[in-house]
Structure formats: structure tokens, C-alpha cells
Design a protein that fits this description.
six-stranded mixed sheet; 52% helix; alpha/beta; flat; two-stranded antiparallel sheet; 17 helices
Length: 476
Amino acid sequence: MKGNQISLAIQRARYVATDLVTTALAIFTFNIFRYFLMEIHVRGHLTLGEFLSMPTVVIEQILLPFILLGIYWWSGYYNRPFSKSRVEEFHSTMVSSVVSTALIYFALLINDPLPARTLTYEVVIVLWGCLFLFTYIGRLILTTSSIRHMQRRDWMFNTVIIGNSPHAINTARRLQEQPTNMGYNVVGHVPIEGEPASTENHNALDDRQVERLARTHNIDQIVLVPTQGSPEEKVMQLLFKYFPTGVPIRLAPTSMAFFTSHIKLGDIISEPMIDLTSPAMNDLQRNTKRIMDVLLSGTALILLSPLYLALAIAVKSTSPGPVIYRQERVGYRQRPFNILKFRSMRVDAEANGPQLSDDTDPRITPLGRVMRKYRLDELPQFWNVFKGEMSLVGPRPERAFFIEQIVREAPYYTLIHQVKPGITSWGMVKFGYARSVPEMVERTRYDLIYLSNMSVAVDIKILLHTIKTVVMGKGV
């Protein structure tokens, strides 16, 4: 980021601090109103100061703002502190205020001594109004200030344009010169092989320079700008190349086919961009998915510990070699990680290099055949999920050796790296284990449909189908 250097963490902390202060003010204001609505025989024994200094009220005043911060985090409000849309902000604040009001009312206020039932509705409305107005005003002030900083170019986000054609140069110019400039600072262009180059002078970069800038956090985003009519295969190849940088990647639409992709509402005030590094889930669902991953995987690790011990003893006693098999797979944004499994094959199973297997593979041990049938060999992956390397539901991770072959046949495969890989997936439910690269490509089609329809509800359905598959022993 260029200009007044403000990091992602600092901007997020500003929103958190603002919410903490405004929520505390909202609770304090509501407690004043709450005092005057109480029955006279209760209120008559207390002055307003005495009521506000009661231990229970003081504890509520201190704890509630922090508890509500958890609800705001769950709503996803802090996920993207520099990409705030005031429309989305209004909606997010509205919804989180409703949830917070319901929580406070049923946990603390339902037994308050009120003289008339109708006053209950007044209490609820005032509580919601205080939470919404104080919180939204604080957020609106901070967001408006941030937008002004970006429009004045006090804050600028270093952007690399992948594309060197006249169309790419014009796109870069529009990003920087439009009246609603949102802080784009184009630091260079990377030419795309085979495309006509612009004759204008600009800072030319190569792939190694982009990787260096990404490692040193000197670029904030990458924008792909292929020429009009570029085949989608070329776009997928570029995406595959730049995913490992870990920098958000956006695509300038060049054909109507891309307009069916996921375009966020916040982008329409500026140049419309397709976000290629975020799945089709809103921030609330994304956080809910992660909470589910942590809770369910942690519960599984505890409850299944006797089964883990029994399987470990069985593996160790029936074949020589380690109990846990570690294999490097490619995960979120093409980051490698070690997937964990109970060993189901002989130790020398891949002495001749990476190989796929089927249910008749002689390398599988007798115990391994049983574990695979009921997918018991996958149980250690709950630890991968708990650590955040995987999710319960997501495309199955593959090895780099096979990914290179898959991408040659299906360049769109690289899109699955938008999300964390999963223990199970729609591809695993509908297709099962792949025994060849063409079968991997076929299974990928299910995973791409999943990416376009991701939701917590879909994840729950896939988990239920997976449980059915395991119980019926259809894991192979």
C-alpha cells in the first residue's frame, strides 16, 4: 500500500475499536431508557445513578459490547476492512443489530418488571434502535473517511495489471482516473504472451518481479486484463500462474460469459471486476463455515479418540511402517500442506513414483481395504480441518504431479483453489474416488458446480450424504 501506510490489521482494529465504543454508548443510552420504563414501585427505590451503578447493570455494560463484537465478527463485517460498500454496511448493521437485540432481550430483559405488556415492544424497539443507530453512525463516519482518503489518493492500493495490450492500458487508466477512484495505484504491467503490446511507456514487470512484490507485501491486488475475445483457457492458465502469490486476483470482464460470474455489489461504483479468489459465499456464511469446521472437527477428535487408538494399534500390528501416512497436497491458493491418513498401503507403495489406486490394487493392505471401504483412513484429516488447512466440505486436494496433468486437460480446474480443500465434497458424494486423470477431470465438474452454489445448507447436505456413504460402506 502506498501513501499514508495503513495496514489491513490497523484498519480492522479501527473498525473494532469504533464498534466497541459505539456499542457501549448504545447500551448505556438504552439503560437510561430502561430505568424510566420500569414499574414505579421498583424505580422509586432507586435513583438513575443508583440503577446504573448496580453490579448487574455494570457487568452488563462491560461485557455486552465485547459479546456483541463476536456477533459483528460472525456477520463478516471485519473480513474486508478496505472494501466497504455503504449499502452492504447498512444491511450488515441492520441484521447484526436484530440478532444482538434478540440475544440481549431473551438473555437479560425478558424478566424486567414493566408496568404494561405493550412496553415490552417499546423496550425491544428502543434497544434495536440504539444498537443500530450508534453502531451504524460510527461505521458510516469511518467508512466515509476511508473512501475520501482513497479518492484523494492518500491511500492507494498497489495494483499489478496482467496485460500489456492497448485494452489493458485503457483499463488501467480508467481505474486510476475515474471520479470514483477507489485507490488503485498501477505499479506495472506484465505482458501476456501472444497479445499485441501497447506502444505507450509504462513499467514492465515479469513473473519473478510479481512474486517478489507479493512476498514483500508491496502489491495489494492483481487485475487480469486479457484482450477482447481471449479464450477462457488462457484466463485459467493465468489464474493458475498467479494463485500462489496469495494476492487477491480480479478479472476485468472481456466477454459476456464472464458477466455470469460473481460480481460484488461494491464493485459497481467503480470499474466492474470479477473476484476470482473469493468463493460465492457471503462473509456471514464463510465465518459460519469456519466455526462449523472448528466445532465439528474438534468434537470428532475428542469423541473418536478411542477409535483412533484402536485403528493405530491395528495398523501397527498388521503391517510394518508408520501408523500415520503424510502426503503433500496442494490446498487453498495452491499452498502445499501435508494431508494425514491412517496408512492403508505398503510402505513401498510408491517406490516408482506417484500412482493412483483402485479397489483391486495389490498395494493396499487387508486392513487398509476395510478402512477405505468405510473411509476410516481419512479420520486423521479432522486435525487438518481443525488447523485450518482443510474444511469439512470442499474439493478434494490433489498432488502437484496430478494437478499439472489435470490442468492440461481442464484449465478451469485451477478455480477450485479459491476455497480450502475438504475431507468430503459433492464430487466425492456423486462420483467417488478417481482412478485416473480423466476421472479426476470428470469429478472436477461437480466441484466447480459446488463452488457456484456454496452455502452452509449445501455443506450440511453433503455431510449427511457422506455419513450415509460411510455407514453403507461405499467408500471405495
